[in-house]
Design goal:
The chain is of the alpha/beta class. It folds into two domains: 138 residues, Rossmann fold, CATH 3.40.50.1370; 155 residues, Rossmann fold, CATH 3.40.50. The protein is built from 13 helices and nine strands. Strands 7-6-5-8-9 form a five-stranded parallel sheet. A four-stranded parallel sheet has the order 2-1-3-4, sandwiched between helices. Strand 1, helix 2 and strand 2 form a beta-alpha-beta unit. It is globular, with a radius of gyration of 19 Å.
């Protein structure tokens, strides 16, 4: 069976550390030399597409970016047929999709085909694992280690938040998620994470969440899939802006992260985004490096499984 990356939880804590180590290795073997990687985007992408394409180039491969309308999942042909077709040409298939089930169907189709082609989640409605790996790399570089560190996520407990929580818990960090009622982490996700030993707290008080933390993290309130609910979400999140007053409650050495794109003046102020605590542009740069480490790990895992 192929080694896919649909969720951060598909990697053990040791494997996450190994991916991050590879991400900081400048002379990784060109494991994709002469090979292609399919990058499918049902939604627009800036950082993820650029990071993925350059990571493939870093590993000697050829990235092929494909828009969702070019393949037409379940319209032009089935998800399964698309996945098996791409598997005929590429060493990896990575996709940004509207529904997580699409990735699961792609992975199942490629497993059934008997080849060694991993599927990578470049964002779904449930998770954004490649973002989380770049975030973890940034935190490890800035803090030295995540073990015993405290992280606060302020905003919508969305796909980015779920992946971040899973990654932080895996590497020994405690995390508090501050969201208004109706936008908090699901009870089943919390129960599963805590049962595995994770220290995860939820609150509707951003000020309490960020007190003394090492990392303050936020994301947009209104994502690509939420445009119709924009007015309601902005009203619900009043008081959840990461501003200078809120950030001052973090530890003196605390840093600020944002996965971008940012809606300046909504979930974060311009002064914080461009301020001395911000590591947002380091974080964006690390998307390429963490993607390179992940692709290298998956390709070499596929080879060793043959």
């Amino acid at each position: 069976m192929n080694r896919h990356l649909l969720s951060v939880s598909d990697l053990s804590p040791g494997e996450i550390a190994a991916v991050l180590d590879r991400s900081e290795t400048a002379d990784l073997a060109p494991c994709l030399a002469g090979r292609g990687v399919a990058l499918v985007f049902e939604f627009p992408s800036a950082r993820t597409r650029n990071a993925a394409e350059m990571a493939v180039v870093d590993l000697g491969g050829h990235p092929v970016a494909i828009r969702g309308e070019e393949i037409g999942f379940d319209v032009r042909e089935s998800v399964e047929d698309v996945a098996r077709t791409l598997g005929c040409y590429h060493a990896l298939v990575a996709a940004r999709v509207a529904e997580h089930a699409t990735l699961e169907r792609m992975a199942a189709a490629l497993d059934g085909a008997g080849g060694r082609v991993p599927v990578v989640n470049l964002l779904s409605d449930l998770e954004h694992p490649t973002e989380a790996l770049g975030d973890l790399l940034t935190m490890r570089q800035c803090l030295g280690s995540l073990e015993g560190r405290r992280v606060a996520f302020v905003g919508d407990a969305n796909n980015v938040c779920r992946s971040l929580v899973t990654g932080c818990v895996a590497l020994g960090a405690a995390i508090t998620v501050a969201s208004p009622p109706g936008y908090q982490l699901a009870a089943d996700f919390l129960a599963t994470t805590r049962a595995a030993g994770g220290v995860v707290e939820v609150t509707d008080d951003p000020a309490a969440a960020v007190g003394g933390v090492d990392v303050v993290y936020t994301d947009v309130w209104v994502s690509m899939a939420d445009k119709d609910a924009a007015a309601a979400k902005k009203a619900a999140f009043a008081g959840f802006t990461v501003d200078e007053t809120l950030v001052d409650r973090a530890a003196p050495s605390g840093i600020v992260l944002h996965c971008l794109p940012a809606h300046r003046g909504e979930e974060i102020t311009d002064g914080v985004l461009e301020g001395p605590r911000s590591r947002v542009w380091v974080q964006a740069t690390n998307r390429r490096h963490s993607m390179r480490g992940l692709f290298s790990f998956l390709v070499e895992s596929a080879r060793s499984a043959r």
